[in-house]
Design goal:
The structure is a single chain. The protein is mostly helical. Helix content is 76%, strand content 3%. The chain has helices at 2-22, 42-68, 72-99, 109-119, 123-151, 155-244, 251-262, and strands at 25-29, 35-39. It is elongated. The termini are far apart. Mean pLDDT is 73; it is low at 1-5, 12-37 and 237-288.
């Protein structure tokens, strides 16, 4: 009888050991000192740990966005992230405890580096970097959650992934919409600033053009005045030249020419004048 009980005890220990080796499992001690076996697939356990790390990182990023976001949309999205992932983590912690999976208590090194980069930014630079990080992070998480819903071995873990997936989809949609609106606003602002710069340049060009036209007008006016003065001096010089020309003689020369023209030209010699006291010769007539 004693031999039989020993054999049964040995068989039970062998069965327990074989169960531990057959599938990944976690063993925990109950408060009364007994061992409680909670079997969970290794892939499911890894998924739970990765999901917890994602929750911790999203909670920290959301709280940072609440403080540093430059727009109300980014701050509200940060609050939504912190609230939703906080609720997801509480559900996950209860599930992990029930399945005997130890969850990480701190964010990953990658998440810490990302937080440091975000903390160094401000304004729209922070908003852009935060929204890009949320888009990438949620895209990666959605892929992992979809894989778990299709390949998970634990019904409880698969149910958690399936219930959480719509929330992740909403977060990705919000991040994408906010990022697009932010890009549009920045483009509009850039176009406005470009229009203002073009307007200023146009005004400066108009002012410069007016100044150049005024300068050209002044130069042309001065040039015209100079040309007119030169023309007047040239005309006066030419007039003086004409007055001194023998072809267009002065009045004295004209009078002399007129006198010369008024003297008649005769070809006969002048009659000698009769000497006084000299009797004229009487006509001799023949006596009858």
């Amino acid at each position: 009888m004693q031999h039989t009980s020993r054999a049964l005890g040995l068989s039970a220990c062998t069965l327990a050991a074989s169960m531990l080796l057959a599938s990944p499992a976690s063993a925990q001690m109950t408060p009364n000192g007994t061992m409680s076996m909670r079997s969970v697939d290794s892939a499911d356990a890894a998924f739970l740990m990765k999901a917890s790390e994602a929750n911790v990182g999203e909670i920290a990023a959301g709280r940072l966005a609440e403080r540093k976001g430059s727009t109300n949309a980014v701050r509200l999205f940060g609050k939504r992230l912190a609230d939703d992932h906080g609720a997801n983590e509480r559900k996950l912690a209860m599930l992990a405890q029930r399945l005997g999976v130890q969850l990480p208590m701190h964010p990953t090194a990658e998440d810490r580096m990302q937080m440091q980069r975000l903390q160094a930014l401000s304004g729209t630079d922070f908003d852009q970097a935060f929204l890009r990080a949320e888009e990438r992070g949620h895209e990666k998480n959605i892929v992992a959650f979809k894989r778990e819903t299709g390949n998970g071995a634990s019904p409880a873990v698969v149910a958690y992934a399936r219930k959480t997936l719509p929330t992740l989809d909403e977060h990705l949609l919000i991040a994408t919409d906010d990022a697009n609106r932010l890009r549009m606003a920045m483009n509009d602002r850039g176009m406005m600033n470009g229009g203002m710069r073009n307007g200023t340049n146009g005004a400066n060009a108009g002012t410069n053009g007016s100044a150049m036209r005024a300068q050209n007008a002044g130069g042309n006016s001065g040039q015209n005045s100079t040309m007119q003065s030169i023309g007047t001096s040239s005309n006066e010089t030419q007039a003086g030249k004409y007055q001194q020309s023998p072809n267009n003689s002065a009045p004295g020369a004209n009078q002399g020419q007129a006198g010369a023209n008024s003297s008649p030209t005769t070809n006969s010699a002048p009659t000698s004048p009769q000497q006084p006291g000299t009797p004229s010769s009487p006509s001799q007539s023949t006596p009858h």
